[in-house]
Amino acid sequence: MNYSLHPEASQDIDDAAAYYQKQAGKVLSQAFLSEFERSVERLLRHPLLGSTWRKDKRRYIMARFPYAIIYTVTGNELRIYAIAHQSRHPTYWRG
Known about the structure:
5-stranded mixed β-sheet, alpha+beta, YaeB-like fold, 5 strands, globular
């Protein structure tokens, strides 16, 4: 199985990593990126691990950080639409 990132999901990752670097330094920023990679690896092995969410999307909550990966599975592709912070409005990424 392969995965792809929507451009805005890629921006979500960059924004979160930059925030953690600014607030706590490079170590926490790298930890966030590592946790994202581990989460994606889990989803590639078990694509239905996340719960059904908002019609045709699924949501997988990251273990260490307050973010959820919003995605779909179609055939052999895991498509990531957003890396959504749990305190933000739940559909901010829909637009």
